[in-house]
Structure formats: C-alpha cells, structure tokens
Amino acid sequence: xxxxxxxxxxxxxxxxxxxxxxxxxxxxxxxALIFQNEAKEKRLTELDKASHLYSFISKIKQNIFYVKDEExxxxxxxxxxxxxxxxxxxxVGLYDIQNKTITLVDQIGIVGEDIKKFKNxxxxxxxxxxxxxxxxxxxxxxxxxxxxxxxxxxxxxxxxCICSSMALPIKKAGSIIGTFNLYAxxxxxFDEGEIKLLVELAGDISFALGIFEKEKTLKRTQELMVxxxxxxRTLIEKSADMITLSTLEGKLIYGSxxxxxxxxxxxxxxxxxxxxxxxxxxxxxxxxANRDKIMQTPGESFYYRxxxxxxxxxxxxxxxxxxxxxxxxxxxxxxxxFRDITEKKLAEEELLLTQFAIDNAGDAVFWMTPDxxxxxxxxAACIMLGYTxxxxxxxxxxxxxxxxxxxxxxxxxxxxxQKGSLFFETVQRAKDGRLIPVEVRANYIKFGDAExxxxxxRDISERxxxxxxxxxxxxxxxxxxxxxxxxxxxxxxxxxxxxxxxQMYNILGVEKKIATSDKLFSSFIHPDxxxxxxxxxxxxxxxxxxxxxxxxxxxxxxxxxEWRFEFDKNKKPVRLYGVLQDITDRKLAEIExxxxxxxxxxRNTELEQFGYIISHNLRSPVANIIGASSVLNDPDLSTxxxxxxxxxxxxxxxxxxxVVQDLNNILQVKGEISNNKEIVHFSELVDDIKISIKNxxxxxxxTIKHDFSEINGLLTIKSYMYSIFYNLISNSxxxxxxxxxxxxxxxxxxxxxxxxxxxxxxxxxxxxxxxxGDVFGLYKRFHNHVEGKGMGLFMVKTQxxxxxxxxxxxxxENKGTExxxxxxx
Length: 825
Known about the structure:
This protein has 25 helices and 28 strands. The chain is α+β, with helices and mostly antiparallel strands. It has a six-stranded antiparallel β-sheet, with helices on both faces. A five-stranded antiparallel β-sheet has the order 8-7-11-10-9, with helices on both faces. The radius of gyration is 55 Å and the shape is flat.
C-alpha cells in the first residue's frame, strides 16, 4: 500500500477551501446581478409608466385647445386615458344634486351589462363620489380588492381586472359638477408625483369647461343684443305712429316707414322738405312757440294737435309729442312722434250731434266714470228716477243701483273695458224709494285719457209683470204635466231646433242643461221600436203611437206620443208639435194582468196534467191494491198465492209512494221558492258536479267543457241552479251514443237584456217532429232501453220557470241535443 504524503493532503484541503470560497463569491455575485436587474426592470417600469402618464397628460392638454364643447372634451379625455395613459377604464360622471345621484355621461373600457351599474348611482352607495362632493378633494384607492370601503365595487373590479382607482373632481364656475374616474390594473398605481399631475389635469379640464361656459354666455349675450336691436328696429319701422327727426331750423333728416303710409311721402321726398312744409299755416306759429319753450331743457317735450299736409294735398289731423334730443349723442335732433287722428276728430264732432240726440232720447242715458260718479244724464233719466239734473250729477252708482255697491263697480268697469259693451238687467232706486226693474246696454267710451260708461237704460216694469204672470202659468202647466206624466215638445223643421218642456227631461231622465235635438230624443227610443217610430215621423202625417224608451240609467219606460204637423203654403212641413206621456205604470199593469192570465192558463194546464197523473199513475196501483186485497179474503187461497198477492200489493204500494213523492217534489218547487238568493258562479257549479259524478265520467270517457267568459254568475237560488245543471249534464251522459267519444259543452252569452246558458251534447237526440210537445212533460220518456222515470226535464223546466226563466230545445236523432236557458238580467 502506498501512503499519501501530508503535504499532498494539506494542498487538497486548501484547494477545496478555495473552491468553496469561490462558489460563495459566485453566488453572491449572481445575487447582486439579479438585484441589479430587478432594480433596473423596476426603474424601466416606472419610466414606462411615467412616460405613459406624461403622454396622457400632454394629449389631454392638446385636446383641450382643440375641442369646442364639453361632450367632445369628456369623450376625448376617456379615449386618451385608455390609449396613452394605459388605464383599464376611464369614465366621466355628472352629479344630479336634487336626486342625490351621479350618472355616466361618457366612458371607455366598461363593457356589456356593466354599463347599467354606472347609471343613476346613488351617492350613498359610492364612497368616492360622496366624498368628493362633500370635501371637494380627489379620492384614491390603491387596493380595491382589500379595501372595506370599496366592498360593493369588488365584484366589478375582479371581473374587469382592476386594482387601483382615482376619482378627480370636475368643476364649472367654481362648483363641482361631476368626476373624472380612472382605473388601473396594478395595485398601488397612484403615487405622489402622479397624483399631483392628475390633480393638475382635472384643473385643466375644469378650466376648459369654464371657457366653454363663458363662450356660451358671450354667444347668448351677442344673440340677445342682435335680437333686441332687430326688435327695436322692427318696432320703429313697423309702428303705426309716424316718427321724424329734424334740425333746430326745421330740416327733416329722418322719417320712419310709416310716413309713407300716413302722409304719402317717400323717404327721399321727405328728406328734401322742411317741417314747416307739412304743417298747416294756421298751426305754425303755435308750433314755433312750443318748440322754443323746450330748447333750454334737454329731454323736455310738449303735446300738440296739428293739421299736416298729405302728399295728395289733403290736410289730416295729427296728435303727438315733440322732444328735445339735440344734446343726445347719436341723435342730435328734435324727435317728433305723431299719429293720424282725423277719424277721432270727426268722431268728436259727430259726438256733439249724438249728444243732442241722447238728450232727447226716450230711454234714460247715464255717463259714469270708473270711480262710479254720475257725470251726465239726459232728461229721460231724470223723469224715470224723479231727480233734477243738478241732483243727479251729485250721486254715485251705489246711490241709485243697490246691485252695484262700491266693491262691485270696479269689477264691472274692468269687464266693460275688456268687452266694449254689456247687456244686463238690474234695478234702480227712484227718489221716492221705489225699485224700478231696468235693462241696461252699457258702452265703454274713451276720450283721450278719460274713460266713461255710457249706458242706455229702459224701464221694464210692465214687461216684468207680464213675465211674472207667464211664469205662474208655466208653473201651473208644469205641475199639471208632472201629475199626468206628460211632456210637450216642438220642432222647427226649417232649422231643426227643438224645445222641450221640463217634464220631457224628467221622463227621459236627463238634465235640463243638455241641448235638445232630434238625434238626442231618437237615442232614447228602444232599438226594437226605433224603425217604426222613424217611419211614423217621416210620413209627415198626424199620428199617435206607443213605444219603449231606454233612459240613460238603463231603465226601460213605456211611452205614448201624439203629434201634429204644420205646413206652409207649398205644403212643406215647417213645424212639428206634440206630447209625450209616460205610461209605464199602465203598461206594467197590463203586462202583469196578461201574465196573471197566462199563469192561470198554465195552472189550468198543470191541473189537467195532475188530473191525468192522478187518474193514471195513482189509479193503477190503487186498483191493483184493491183487487189483490179482495182476493186475499178468499179462504181457499193457497199460501203460495197469498205470498204472490202480498208481493204484488207491496210493489203497488211502492209505486203509489213514488208517485206521491214525485207530486210532492213538484208542488214544493212550485209553491215554496226561497228568497235567499246569492251570486252563483256557473264554473263552480260545473266543477262541483264533475267531482260528484267523477266515477261516471271516467268510466264512460265523457268530456265536459265550459266557457263562461261573457258572464259567469247570476243572482239566484243556488240549490235550483245546481239541480238544473245536474239534471241536464246527467241526462246527456245517460242518453249518450255508445262506441263514440261523448262530449258536453256549456257556455254563457249576453244578448241585449238577457243571459243565455247553452247546453250541447252529441248524444242520441230526440225526434222533435214526433215528440216535441212532450219533451218537458211529466213521466215522458223516449228511450226505453235506458232506466228512468221521465221526471228530470219536467223538474228542470219547473225550476227554471220558478226562477223567472224559460227553456227551449233543438235536437236531431243520432246527432245530439241543445238546450237553451234564458234569464233576464
């Protein structure tokens, strides 16, 4: 064995130690290199992030200079935030302070159904928006997923992959109107430097909004100035008044468009003239004197009336004002504002003639002022009230008319001023205290600035007495018509105007304020009688007839009318007059009498049928009992024969009892109808019956359908209706056709004033030509192979008639049967 030397062993140790040390150094160097790379990547990321942010800020600022309205500003800001700022979501919301909400107006990055979550967001549901509105500061959340305040937004943040958010206030005119909201994918995205830049950005956006608002205000102001200028120019140019500007020497330097219409001069012609060329020579000296008075006072004016020359040579009267505006910059002239009053002057002259006529008129004439003073009266007014003219003009309206007290007269005068004239009746108090009924024609008259009520007043005492007598006569006539239920009518056939008496309205059940007409009256005539009535009226012959009326409340009344025609010389009808009488009570009595007679006849028929039942259905079992009983007394009768006879007697007694029970049931239905009525629902009846005979329906495969959509109920006796439905349904099942599917349908209908129930089946049917008269008879049967007594349809008919209805049948052998039940509603 060769031993290793000690030197060699120590060298190996040193070598291993050096290698170990080198490995450690290499690991440390690698770690340092990794740290440097991470730091470098972090700086690169921060630089990239800063680059995007500065690019975003720069683009927004550029956008502010180019856009012209806030809608484009908001849209571009969101677009730039996503494209250059590398945000995930950007949206702008505006506050609704009244409703305490904020709603999205523009956005980029929100997709699908999530947009709905940004519409009308309640402020209490979002911490950031409420905080900004309350404090005016921005709001930042650098960790949405772990921030308790943002819990409600966590689902959306998770879905959209966002971790940080910042909301910046947007202001207009110093007030917060909304927020600019930015969302980033990274946590802790917003640091101090970025926050400062973004806050500055929000200020720039708010500044731009302020500029937009100022531009809007400036534009509105400019438009208003143009509008006011146009309005002023239009007022001047379109005014009916004429306007001229002249120098101190009288040279005309301006004339409005109305000069052409008023005086006939064109603008060119007018500017070649002097004021003194158009003023009447007799009025010039006064015009110069008045002009000189206002020359020392700027803005001073005077009122004038002058004659001015029209281009055609005529002189027209004008009134107006001349104002000194020589010292007013931009005007530097005497301004004359005047209008044509030629017609007014003529009217004043005519008024003098009118006054003479009034003073000598037969009716009283009063001139009164707006403050209720009497300023002038004619002689007829003095005679009517017993005052002298001197005393009359010392009175006021309340002194002579108690209806027009101090508080009412101003209201009356305002109405007169608006309408121009009024016609009414009142009373006037004479000097001796008498109240005189009068009719008044009041007229509004204005002279310059003075207003008057010129009233023509007529004493109508005699007419009022005649009207009172007429009213008494009409009252007595109305009372007589009311007692007799008679109304009268009159129709002018030339213009088809109608006049009805009060009782006509009462009979028809309408208010008197409704306008009368032929169409109105025709609308009350029962549809079944309308054609006959129309033909009778259009025959233009005197006639009388009975018919029915349907009032507005739906009540049917019976009436009779008699009418007469008047014809002109050409035999053309010009007037129709007549009477209408309500004969409902009489008609109902007649109907009741007829019903009683029919009931008596029906009772007589029923008695005959009962007699038949007693003579046949009772006599047969009784005869059997009597015969068998007499044979039983034979002593030679064997035991077997006695048993046979006893069995026969028992069967006859049972038949006798059945007949008595049937008769009892019939009499009970006819004689004891209950007043305990209730609303019976047909669908519930059918459902109850289907449950009670379920086994029979299932066993035979019966289909029962019903349609009560038109009417599903009736106020009636429930037990009777149940029996009717049950008998008709069970009859259809009993007399079904074998080997084919059986169906039964039941439906309700409303026809005018009656309700119909229709039962239909596809059963055996009945030969109505042969058996139609016996269908509803007692003990009448038409299919002997089916068990029965012939009581069902008889009981159905009896119960229906007891309830006030009627039943009819349609049937064909081997095709089916239809029963129709009718009730009044």
